[in-house]
Automatic annotation (TrEMBL):
Gene3D superfamilies on file: 3.30.70.20, Ribonuclease Z/Hydroxyacylglutathione hydrolase-like
PANTHER family named in the record: METALLO-BETA-LACTAMASE FAMILY PROTEIN, METALLO-BETA-LACTAMASE-RELATED
Domain 4Fe-4S ferredoxin-type span(s) in chain numbering: 69-97
Keywords on record: Signal
Xref: InterPro entries: 4Fe4S_Fe-S-bd, 4Fe4S_Fe_S_CS, RibonucZ/Hydroxyglut_hydro
Name of the protein this chain belongs to: Metallo-beta-lactamase family protein
Family annotation (Pfam families): Fer4_13
Length: 387
């Protein structure tokens, strides 16, 4: 018995020696590795700057722009087309990416190009030489009225967020000053938030699809009385317990006489669209809606999320099947179903805005959207996507 105990003690002592030796060697190795890192951590400022400039030049030269202009697009471009939608004369596409095709012709076009630069979600648009006009654009050009006559009260917010894959955010400003609506959310920017506040702030933040408002919490912190409106099927893990208004079922839902929310499942299970008819009344909370005027009575604006938009490459309305996260068949059905709604304009989160021919004529609208749904589904099949 005694011999067994002494043997156990010797074995335990040997293990302890081995363990502490291992710790010493490990510590020595880590310390040595740390000391080898010190020179790079204390690299001279000039060397750091030189390396930064080399990286910048590599990015600059990696994507061939069409002209040698002050503006250029680097290889971090994601090809989202934001710049082409804001300033189509200056920016074009080369393969799957955007390029600068020519210099802006005048100051107005230069401002538009700089708005595109500020808006770019990847920060891929750059200047070879600084221009003080950029600061003026940042200070005064956002939010930007889309068209005061055709689209009264609708503003483009800019500052697209790379976390949302460049979703286009909008702001509806209404006469009462308390019922403004943010459609999806840009990346948070303090200056932009102050400008929105000067327009009356935000009453509702409507999230049209999953992932379209990654900075919703920052915007809500700035506008604490705002209500985030999301369909239950698209409430992300990060949003749980934070959303003030969760939509249930198939809708439609209305905020008031001017704003109706419709279900558009497909791109994501809880995708929604927002129909706005500009005449502005006070908001009364979100309620179930069974009627929405008579077809053709008022020509409205559809904020379609990622369900539908104008594709410059295809030169037609499309649902961008390559980006869809859900069912193409359901998305096609949602596109076709929009033909029964009353609107003349489509303002998408993906793609370009589009004005329906005939000013929102019911027959024309139904035909165009039925065709768009059919072509969208066919393209998905040809591309080998799961429909």
């Amino acid at each position: 018995m005694a011999s067994d105990l002494s043997h156990a003690r010797r074995k335990r002592r040997k293990c302890s020696h081995f363990f502490f030796s291992f710790l010493f060697l490990a510590n020595f190795s880590v310390t040595s590795a740390f000391h080898t890192m010190l020179p790079s951590m204390h690299r001279p400022v000039k060397e750091t700057r030189r390396r930064t400039l080399m990286r910048a030049r590599a990015k600059e030269e990696s994507l061939g722009n069409a002209v040698d202009a002050n503006l250029y697009v680097d290889r971090s471009c994601s090809g989202c087309g934001t710049c082409r939608s804001i300033c189509p004369g200056v920016f074009g596409d080369l393969g799957l990416q955007s390029v600068v095709e020519r210099e802006p012709l005048d100051k107005n076009e230069t401002r538009a190009a700089y708005r595109a630069m500020v808006t770019c979600p990847m920060g891929a648009i750059r200047l070879r030489k600084p221009d003080p006009l950029v600061k003026e654009v940042v200070m005064h050009d956002f939010p930007t009225p889309l068209d005061p006559v055709a689209l009264p009260g609708v503003y483009f917010l800019g500052y697209h967020n790379r976390e949302s894959m460049g979703v286009t955010p909008y702001l509806i400003v209404r006469d009462n000053g308390e019922g403004n609506i943010m459609i999806d959310a840009p990346r948070f920017n303090g200056r932009l938030a102050q400008q929105i506040e000067s327009l009356g702030g935000v009453r509702y933040m409507i999230v049209t699809h999953e992932g379209s408002a990654p900075h919703h919490d920052l915007w809500h912190a700035f506008f604490p009385s705002s209500e985030r409106v999301v369909h239950r099927m698209d409430v992300t893990r990060e949003m749980r317990g934070q959303v003030e208004a969760i939509l249930q079922g198939k809708g439609p839902w209305r905020i008031d006489d001017d704003v109706k929310i419709v279900a558009l499942p497909g791109y994501s299970p809880g995708s929604i669209g927002v129909l706005f008819h500009p005449s502005s009344v006070s908001s009364n909370g979100i309620e179930e809606d069974s009627k929405w005027g008579k077809d053709g009575e008022r020509n409205g604006i559809l904020f379609s999320g990622r369900t539908l938009g104008w594709s410059a490459r295809l030169n037609r309305l499309d649902g961008f099947a390559q980006f869809s996260r859900g069912s193409l068949r359901k998305q096609a059905a949602s596109i076709k179903g929009l033909g029964k709604e009353d609107f003349a304009w489509i303002l998408p989160a993906e793609g370009l805005k589009f004005h329906l021919p005939g000013g929102g004529n019911a027959e024309t609208r139904e035909r165009l959207l039925a065709e768009a749904a059919e072509l969208f589904l066919a393209r998905g099949r040809v591309g080998g996507l799961n429909v």
